[in-house]
Design goal:
By secondary structure, the chain is an alpha+beta fold. It has eight helices and nine strands. The protein folds into two domains: 59 residues, Orthogonal Bundle (Arc Repressor Mutant, subunit A); 182 residues, 2-Layer Sandwich (Beta-Lactamase), CATH 3.30.450. It holds the Pfam family IclR_C. This is IclR family transcriptional regulator.
Length: 260
């Protein structure tokens, strides 16, 4: 249950426990944990058992507890995303202001795209619903098309066979066959399109971002409000998005950044 300030007590105890174990240089016994957190021994035991089951805490042969490797893995991923976000943001700000549109940075997480950075055109009074941390089904976004297209062939085939192509608008791709045609188009022109497939008022353009190894680790998109873009203008915008994505990729290459 949440307190008046919105804090969930059980979640607060979990974070306090992880912080406690993270601050200690040596593993702790159950009683030490309970005393340090000023909670009943049974409560401490329940928290530790739950975190052990998820790999966040491990117990040694002397029945002492310490931070597990899963937390290190999550921290490493966060740092990698932070590098990409920090290096991408200046280019995103220029693109968003020049095009008077919203610029997004996202990665593929299973069957969703996960937005890890966003820059809005401040002169535009209309704000889009997406924000950092938003997840959307990959098949309804230009970002998702880029990221799925860049999967290794076997992984892409598996992804297509397992994905649920839910319909959000009349333009949403509702089958692997339809979606695959868009992937082919992306491969031909170098950028992907979202033609009102997520929302009737949104067009999207996206291009890949590669890290220092040359692997595609993220995608950059420009989200434009309004009716469909004329084809000649569409090509021009697509090229500018590709140029911005390439600029970010070169920045990652030169700084030796390796993505998640």
């Amino acid at each position: 249950m949440a307190a008046g300030d919105g804090v969930v007590k059980s979640a607060e105890r979990v974070t306090a426990l992880l912080e406690l174990l993270g601050e200690r240089r040596t593993p702790m016994r159950l009683m030490e944990v309970a005393q340090a957190l000023d909670i009943p021994k049974s409560s401490a035991h329940g928290l530790l058992q739950t975190l052990m089951a998820r790999g966040f805490v491990v117990r040694d042969d002397l029945q002492r507890y310490r931070i597990g490797m899963k937390l290190f893995s999550l921290a490493a991923t966060a740092l990698e995303f932070m590098d990409i976000r920090e290096m991408a943001r200046p280019t995103m700000e220029v693109l968003a202001e020049r095009e008077r549109a919203t610029c997004n940075l996202a990665v593929l997480d299973g069957h969703d795209v996960l937005y890890i950075e966003k820059v809005e055109d401040r002169s535009n009074p209309v704000r889009l619903v997406t924000h950092v941390g938003t997840r959307l089904p990959a098949h309804v976004t230009a970002l998702g098309k880029v990221l799925v297209a860049e999967l290794p062939p076997a992984a892409r085939r598996l992804w297509l066979s397992e994905h649920e192509f839910s319909k959000l608008t009349s333009q949403t791709r509702t089958s692997a066959v339809q979606f695959s045609r868009d992937l082919k188009q992306y491969e031909n022109v170098g950028y992907a399109l979202d033609r009102h497939e997520f929302h009737d008022a949104i067009n999207g353009f996206a291009a890949p971002i590669s890290d220092a190894t040359g692997s595609v680790v993220a995608a950059l998109s420009l989200t434009c409000l309004g009716t469909s873009t004329p084809e000649d203008e569409q090509v021009a915008i697509g090229k500018r998005v590709c140029d911005a994505a390439e600029e970010i990729s070169l920045n990652l290459h030169s700084n030796g950044v390796v993505g998640a």
